[in-house]
Amino acid sequence: MSLLTVKPTKFDERIARTVARKTNRRAETVARGLTWGADEKILLALAAAGWVLSRTQGEPLRRAGNHALLVAATASVFPHLLKTVFDQTRPDRKTVLGHVHGISFSGKREDAFPSGHALHMGALASAAGPLPAGPRWAIRALAVGLCLTRIVVLAHWASDVVAGFALGAALERMLRLWTGYPIEETDDAAT
Q1: 53-86 burial, b for 16+ CB within 10 Å, e for fewer?
Q2: In the predicted model, what is the mean pLDDT of residues 138-152?
Q3: Sequence-separated contacts (24+) of 52-58 with Cβ below 8 Å
Q4: % of the chain with per-residue pLDDT over 90
Q5: 58 half-sphere exposure, CB direction, 13 A CA radius
Q6: Confidence of residue 112 (pLDDT cuts 50, 70, 90)
């Protein structure tokens, strides 16, 4: 049992009821597959591979590799710590109709708040900030899309996803203070 119980909002409940009524097995299968794109194990493996590859590069890429690995590792641990403080029943445990339409069970029953997948995606979206506009917006759109899969599969209430995303963005920004990411070009360096 955790210290605090988080209740879903009326808006959360309305969204979950709509998903449970409108979904089907095919949509659930697609959403379940896509949600793996925000899974901590996959993101940690990608960050570790990027870190290894960055070791032979210049300082900006090495620093970005360090930052990505630290963010991925911290974002993997942080939601687990928060879930020891907060209890919230997942929406997939509160529907019968949804299971008839193909919704399966996700994770531990009381671990809805916050969404760890969304926390990872918030960190990714924040880290994309220094990139050129095209890649930055593509990464951010992908991050939001992957977050929405957590609502579609009823693993999380919409507010869990929003909170997780915001926490991930804040976490990434705080870790910048430690890693020095990104390296800002100065006028002296440009000349």
Answers
A1: ebeeeeeeeebbbbbbbbbbbbbbebbeebbeeb
A2: 94
A3: none
A4: 48
A5: 2
A6: low
For residue 69, what pLDDT is reported? 96
Q: For tokens 């097995």, name the residue.
A: 25
Sequence-ordered list of residues with C-beta below 8 angstroms from that of 164, at least 6 positions apart, any chain: 79, 114, 115, 116, 117, 118, 119, 121, 122, 147, 156
Residue 36: pLDDT band by 50, 70, 90 thresholds?
Answer: confident
**Residue closest to 76 by CA, chosen among 110, 39, 108:** 39
Mean pLDDT of the chain: 84
Q: The tokens 């050129």 sit on which residue?
A: 132
CA–CA–CA angle 58, 63, 69 (5° rounding): 125
Q: Give the DSSP letter of residue 83.
A: H
Is the link from the previous residue into 91 a cis peptide, with omega within 30 of 0?
no
Average of per-residue pLDDT across 146-165: 92
Collapse the DSSP code of 103 into the 3-class scheme (helix H, G, I; strand E, B; otherwise coil) and give the result.
coil
